[in-house]
Amino acid sequence: MSEVMHHTLYDGRRIAFRYTHGTGPALVFLPGYMSDMQGGKATALFAEAEAKGRACLLMDYSGCGQSAGEFADGTLSRWRDEVLALIASYASGPVLLVGSSMGGWLMLLVAQRLGGRLDERLAGMIGIAPAPDFTRWGYTEAQRAQLAAGETIYEPNPYGPEPTPTYAKFFADAECHVRLEGEIDLACPVHLLHGKCDADVPWEISLRLKQALRSDDVQVSLIDDGDHRLSRPGDVELLKAVVAGFYG
Question: Does residue 166 belong to any structural domain of this protein?
Fold first, then answer.
């Protein structure tokens, strides 16, 4: 896989990324909360793109992976702007956004900034257990009250030894980006993948997202025994097949 490079933003933030040149649309992978471009799905899609001569962009949000910064400073707005900056600098032409978990929420924000139409910069979107609005449905009212009061909350992390923090700064910004409570003005083709055994993001969220999107080309694939990560070999092969469908 290609070497890690760094892109410096206007304020000095250094964002780690990998990019491989090729035919379009350029696939842009958006990791989940506290995740990075070293994950199994991201690396598998990048390797597939290299093998097939397709353009592909992976990145670490600031405060994550090999990018500079503190995770506590991260917000959807901040990470959205980082994604847009890298797309503008490296991915010419249409892009195919692939968002995993929180990356599925971020993908909507990026898509709306790109224009949202097939004849513009957005060729399509693929959501993997997308989690838009998780600050609304993913926390108890007591937790939301703590966050609104400026506190940090910590939850058990099923994927590592350290608890998962949610910072008040992230929460306050996320409240400005709620999308499922109205129509989402995006008309591009969309394919959503969701495991019915997902313990983190209810699969019904993908159905809500389908209803909210203005696009008349939204497919939802539910995997009966799939978990949240959808990282098993069969899950990754399904993801590759869905991606291939956007290239004809």
Answer: no
For 234, the token pair is 């069969």
Task: Scan for tokens 């959205």, then name that residue.
Answer: 80
Domain count, the chain: 1
Q: What is the CATH number of the domain that holds 223?
A: 3.40.50.1820
What pLDDT, on a 0 to 100 scale, did the predictor assign at position 24?
82
Q: Which domain range does residue 69 map to?
A: 5-133+182-245
Question: What positions carry a catalytic annotation?
Answer: 101, 198, 228
- Cβ 122 vs Cβ 116: under 8 Å: yes
Characterize 206-220 residue by residue with b for buried, 16 or more Cβ atoms within 10 angstroms of its Cβ, and e for exposed. bebbeebbebeebee
In this structure, are residues 105 and 131 in contact, taking their beta carbons and an 8 Å threshold? yes
Domain assignment present for residue 145? The answer is no
| Half-sphere exposure at residue 152, Cβ-oriented, CA atoms within 13 angstroms | 10
pLDDT (tens digit per residue) in 190-213: 999 999 999 999 999 999 999 999
Residue 236 vs residues 42, 61, 168, 193, 198: alpha-carbon distances, Å = 10, 23, 34, 11, 16
Summarised one tens digit per residue, pLDDT across range 222-244 is 999 999 999 999 999 999 999 99
C-alpha 68, offset from chain centre = 19
Contact 191, 199 (CB under 8 A): no
